[in-house]
Amino acid sequence: MREVAIIGVGIIPFGRRDEDSLMDMLAYASLKALDDAGLGEAERPVDAVYVGNMGSGIIQHQTAIASSLVDRLSLLPAAAETVENGPASGGSAVKNGLLAVASGYYDTVLVVGGEKMREVTGWRATDFVATMTHPQSEYPYGITLPGLAGMFTRLYMEKYGVTREHLVYVALKNQAMGTLNPYAHVEMALSREGIFESPHAIVNNPPIADPLHLYDACPVSDGAAALVLCPLEMLKKVNKLPVVIAGFGQATDTHTLQEREDPTDLKAVTLAARQAFERAKLKPSDIHVAELHDAFTILEIAESEHIGFFKKGEGGKAVAAGKTSLGGQIPINMSGGLKARGHPVGATGVAQIVDIVFQLRHELSKERQVKNAKNGLTINFGGFGNNVLVFILRRVES
Amino acid sequence: MREVAIIGVGIIPFGRRDEDSLMDMLAYASLKALDDAGLGEAERPVDAVYVGNMGSGIIQHQTAIASSLVDRLSLLPAAAETVENGPASGGSAVKNGLLAVASGYYDTVLVVGGEKMREVTGWRATDFVATMTHPQSEYPYGITLPGLAGMFTRLYMEKYGVTREHLVYVALKNQAMGTLNPYAHVEMALSREGIFESPHAIVNNPPIADPLHLYDACPVSDGAAALVLCPLEMLKKVNKLPVVIAGFGQATDTHTLQEREDPTDLKAVTLAARQAFERAKLKPSDIHVAELHDAFTILEIAESEHIGFFKKGEGGKAVAAGKTSLGGQIPINMSGGLKARGHPVGATGVAQIVDIVFQLRHELSKERQVKNAKNGLTINFGGFGNNVLVFILRRVES
What we know:
The structure is a homodimer of 398-residue chains. With 398 residues, chain A is an alpha/beta fold. Chain A has 14 helices and eleven strands. At the A-B interface, helix 2, helix 3, strand 3, helix 4 and strand 8 of A face helix 2, helix 3, strand 3, helix 4 and strand 8 of B.
């Protein structure tokens, strides 16, 4: 199998993008990635396209969007399809782009993830996300993703001593980083007082699924992000230092949380991480920067433990102690994470990798850049941990 | 890249399956394929699962079905995702399963395609299929797939002399073959008199999109089909002669028919076929049996020309002369095709390959079996020819 490099990345500002269609957003991010790869003017820039998207059928009443995108971008007759894996659709698209290049069948592959979620608002947005729950044993009973996350948080608190204050530290860190990221949805920094300590905190930051409060959850966002992949051996036209996908892992777990022997045990994260570390021939302490799937603050803490950055029960304290902040032991979500960049579901897995590529190329402003970062990691968490992808990226020194 | 073998196939009867959910159908076909591969009792039968499906979000209001299926089949922690490419979703799922094995990342891969379309009936079924049309320049104007096919047929008739009688020959052949296929939706044979010659033919077989009549179109069906893939070099537990995927091709064309320089020229079919033949090191005359994408009778004729079985303008006459019947020059759609087996969109690309595997293993009844068939071909046609996959399969003699 061929080693696969990321030679271009593109991302558009996440948030409310009322004036752009889903197709517009996918096209903008793709063109940025192609330009970044130096392929913007090439006659046949890519052989294949993978689109990560979860909801175009439900939200936009549109299918076959990959065919439409290839035409819109004048990439005909490139192969194209959409990959769907709930909120890990982006990660699954990247995986299949990676396999396509690794297999030797395709040389240059565009992967783009996008979602236009704000066309559905209020309960409809929550309902859209809930289409990933189990159609017999979850959805008909009204469980939602915030509901599952709330129950998971309660169990995790009881078993591992995570506190609400630990969750607040995650929210404060990520939202502060989001204000420094020009692509983030959320532009407002939070204060500890405003969301936790003051008498008005309960008004500013009300419970949404006890013990989770409003600022424990990511916003509903529109957005898109893209990558261009090619075999490492074929690098010629690249202006920038390439980053390689050193390893990936993917694992599934029971579709419902209730069927897990220990619902606090995110087995799919552990297994996917193990595969990724084995393939990359690296260990958790070799990672310099990570983008974890903090759709809810508790997930950043739980994932940081399951991936092996911290022991079980230490993740919350680590955030509070600044170990996951810039300059700390392992900076996590220096993009702001899903919490502040936003979580347009099909885009997230791609956007995480885009931000790690920025880090590994040392291109960010010093407020976000992890010094000398060489190895980075992402976790894209599908369902409630029922389908998880982990990627490990490595900077290639010339 | 590793050569990839198909070591197991499974298909369930297509048609009205009101008592089965989409998940039930995917599971039944998958279990049949796993059993056929001799992996039904294996502890870790597959490493990865690809689900071909177009409409679960729209029709079933359900996403992340691949995660749900893996759990249902007790295949955890296998990797899994859904691949969507309109009516070529099945073919795209097979392609990605193939690349996954060819890449060396996964050894045993289950590919299953399925669709439960009869939950939407009447105009809603036509509308569901129309979600693959262009969201700005087609869908809002009310064009449907039968409408596009009707216009294409008129142009093809004018340019190449195809007649309604030629179309009737396709319908008669395929529906007759369908009555011999236990997995086909349509169980009734048609008569030339009943649908074409008698004074009542206009009642039995009314126009649906002139010049196409009712029996020129495939039915709306429920169904599922599955394959198990592994590297040819790893064959051990296989009871049956394996079939290898000798080549595949995929190409896209303009999303809308109207933008093509010559709308009768199905460029994506020509290009995808060229790639497949090059990879397989075969030519059209080496193929012994083919499953073409006859969602409308005209497509079987047009594809048989574009793929190189017949010259342009000869396809219609070839059908009339019996050249595409059993015992003819190149038997086409000995399963009954989409026309008679049915066209549950996500299932079709997989079902075509399943039937070719039956042919290449020489397992069919003598009324359907092409004698000594060694090489077979499928065309899975997405959109109106905007995303086409071609597979060439070869029987491996021991």
